[in-house]
Specification:
The protein has 172 residues and is mainly beta. The chain is built from one helix and ten strands. Strands 2-4-5-6-7-8-9-10 form an eight-stranded antiparallel barrel.
């Protein structure tokens, strides 16, 4: 009987503490302070997604998923940001779709006010300003660019569900 109690105590929930830790979302988050932090010659390739309170799901390095080619690139002209383009592979790898973030204004650290062109997500429930812009969280978490998702094919299951896309920087 004593051995059974010892066995039960040694298998307590504390043994699974690491299961509750999200190693990516726990990294330091630095909100974007200037649009120039998105350097003109850098491309950020899709690395993963965080949906609601679930852990960040990263693509394995040997992934054959169509999303491994998804990427974000900032387009500058005359030293100012013209737009951010998100190249997204369609479902079933049926071609690349382009989503543009235009009329970009960083009014507060980490909050990009933008117009999303070409998105499949319904934006009508979001707060839209007089210029048709919506606020998106954007910044760096560890080595990843993290941006609130209003560009991918993911359909939210809850109206206020927070969804973030993670991208790895690749300099060309």
């Amino acid at each position: 009987m004593c051995l059974c109690l010892v066995g039960l105590v040694s298998c307590s929930k504390d043994d699974n503490k690491d299961d509750d830790v999200d190693p990516i979302f726990e990294l330091e988050y630095k909100p974007l302070k200037s649009l120039k932090e998105l350097e003109t010659n850098d491309t950020y390739y899709y690395a993963g997604i965080k949906i609601g309170d679930r852990k960040v799901g990263l693509l394995p390095s040997n992934s054959t998923s169509c999303t491994r080619h998804d990427r974000i690139h900032a387009k500058f002209g005359n030293n100012t940001l013209n737009y951010i383009v998100f190249y997204r592979n369609g479902r079933g790898c049926d071609g690349v779709q382009e989503v543009r973030l235009v009329k970009n204004v960083l009014e507060n650290d980490g909050i990009l006010h933008t117009v999303v062109l070409g998105s499949l997500d319904k934006l009508d429930k979001l707060v839209i300003d007089d210029e048709g812009r919506i606020p998106l969280e954007i910044g760096f978490q560890g080595e990843y660019l993290r941006i609130e998702d209003r560009m991918s094919n993911y359909k939210r299951t809850k109206q206020n569900e927070k969804v973030y896309l993670y991208f790895e920087k690749i300099s060309l």
